[in-house]
Amino acid sequence: MPQHYKVKCQFCGIKFDDDGFILDCPAQHPETALLMTEYSALMFEPNCSEHGISRYHNWLPIRHHLYSAGRTVTYQSQKLSQRLGLPNLWIAFNGYCPEKGAMLVTSTFKELEAYTVVSRLGAQHTKTLVVASAGNTAAAFASVCSHNKVPCLIIVPESGLHRLKFTRSTRSVEEASGWTGMPAGDPQATSLRTLTSLDPVVKIVSLVGADYDDAIKLATSISQLDGFFQEGGVKNIGRRDGMGTTMLSAVETIGQLPDYYFQAIGSGAGAIAVHEAAKRLIADGRFGQKLPQLMLSQNFPFIPIYHAWKSQQRQLQSIDISKQQVKQIVADVLSNQRPPYAVIGGVFDVLKESQGDMFFANNQETLQAIDLFQETEGIALDPAAGVALATLIKASKYELIDCEAHILLHITGGRCHNSNQQLYLIQPSLQLTQQELFTQKTLEKVLALF
User: CATH assignment of 73-102+237-416, given 3.30.43.10, 3.40.50.1100, 3.40.50.2300, 3.40.50.1820?
Assistant: First the structure.
């Protein structure tokens, strides 16, 4: 069966079929560039018979189907928009809140990317996927890979283990399907009650006293061993197109592209993803001709992308990015020390092309924003989403945006405050200290897990 998409290099323009694994252009380049997908379907046509992310199959690099993940829920804010004086404020919510039809069991938009990355792989592949995470991505891949029995090694700092939370709904399957539009007996509805432990093919390694950057280094090392392969982060077209469905959901609901798009970033992969999706929607011709301005933010004092953008330099500045600085931020999932800023098609390029800007919020501003959202919208936000809201509040207060414009606020994780749910944590299969990370004995311990 022919693929419904091609992979294209943004530097040389070469196009080729996807094997599910490729992360880089096979041609030799003087500069690094992100690959992109080009779909046969030029019009945005959601499959209305599907209720999860597979609703957008025509614009996803899916090579085989899995149990479906949920999807973004977009709704027009009422109380928050009144409080902020933003009459056209829309919320793109990725989380767990049955009352709003949001059924991402790990309560984070990382489920969108995990589903698409795994669906992009050939159904018969035998290697083990290696994923590095600060916590949210770990939870998402653990859930998707466990449900679908896909071998996966997840490496996460000990500080991120508390994010490996899974929702076990206390609703009946019929009630759950009523909220999501799923038919009774749908595997997704059933899975909300049945995933109480990971499948043995999924292993989690916790790094004690280490951070996200250490996790990335160890994952890179292990992925070079026989039988393993690297997920690839922002370079994986599945990851970006999966997250890009947030913009597809918004446009399907609003009927047009927003004027502004607010999101907090660590690597910036999500912002790149929605920008790429917006370009496809513009090519469709029915939803507007102007790209949404990317209004991106970081958590002070860890703001390397903010500094680089404000200096208008393509390269990240040589600033002190210490481990101590990372420990000072409340939204530690935003602590990527190697963001794809300078790469062709990366953060610098999408900010420039969208005429966007960078902001920051400190911890106090972030926590105040979290309280405001819970008060007005009834949802407890993840800290990263609090950063995005805090910067929207400042942009509105200081008249940095047109308050009458259509604004899309991406809430990247959260749970309804009054949801009737039970949470449980997944325990790691192996713990390693920082001193053990790159020794031969460590590699042997990891291999022994499989």
Answer: 3.40.50.1100
